[in-house]
Request: fold
Amino acid sequence: MNKLIYLDNAATTQMHKEVLDAMIPYFTEYYGNPSAIYTFAGDAKKAVDEARKTLAAGIGAAPEEIYFTGGGSESDNWALKAAAEAYAEKGKHIITSKIEHHAILHTAEYLEKNGYRVTYLDVDENGLINPDELRAAIRPDTILISIMAANNEIGTIEPLEEIGVITKENGILFHTDAVQAFGHIPIDVDKMHIDMLSASAHKLGGPKGIGMLYIRKGVKIRSFIHGGAQERQRRAGTHNVPGIAGFGRAAQLAFDDMEKRSSYEAELRDYMIERILTEIPYSRLNGDRTDRLPNNANFCFRFIEGESLLILLDQNGICASSGSACTSGSLDPSHVLLAIGLPHEIAHGSLRLTISEKTTREEIDFTVDKIKEIVERLRNMSPLYEDFIKKQK
Reply:
């Protein structure tokens, strides 16, 4: 196959042409600053307002509860840092999980250095937190619980509704990093009792550099960027109007097509999983087999290094990853795979394949065939594999 096969949609997605079309007028024609009071700025302001309505409707929120940011990492930082500061008089204890994105984990570490205490919940072998363990970790000084909607590496979907019930019963703020889940699975902030939610446009066919933070009305949270009065004085800075317009259009496309797209992706994902687990010995699927994002499949192959596998896949025109793009280049195995109980030597042989509605069965077959060839080739070079086979005999 001579064309590029892109199977790293958890890292970023190709922007839809409809999204680009929605953005272009705000670069060239309606370029006014939406904060200005003259008539010319009205079209830009209208684009911002419409996108805010679209994003809110998709999660059952009110438009005034949506705040635009520079992306998912900023939204996560804002949620944790500003909430911690605002509720410090009530307590300084925060609960999160060991498999969160580093935007959460590193922010939690920052807060620990500034006098806060953080409990990092364990997960089971599929990456699921235990709601009973969450309940047991709550203390009188707990002010915030942050659990991701779905894991960015292994795709496991967390029990948001159960978590939300626990947080509501205890009067604790509930934030979820929904960067991987938003637009891919249904989320209802009222039904799930979510107080804050992070999302990013480039994970669903939108532009990079634009995200949002949902903040429930009544939540006492401080400003994150100080300056002008934008975003109801909570996040200063001139609005990225083209990005916002693109985010709104990408989200609308995602919401409208979610059921059909998810069904197609899940069917293709399961076909890929079945082929790999059946045809490649000493392979394993990471994450829950059913409660996972429809487009995510994460594997470990014993006796090989994931980096070598990625390089050889790239030489065959296949784009994949070993985990989060934000930790690319790290020699350490994935913190997520270690948290679900995998030893270092197995965690090092990981491969994440994330598909889209544009992925074809032909591309999956070609990819699986190449993985089989490469894994066999790498194992034949491995003295560990050679010793293992001898012992089996």
About this structure: The mean pLDDT is 95. Residues 241-279 form the longest helix (39 residues). DSSP finds 14 helices and twelve strands in the chain. The two ends are 38 Å apart (CA to CA).
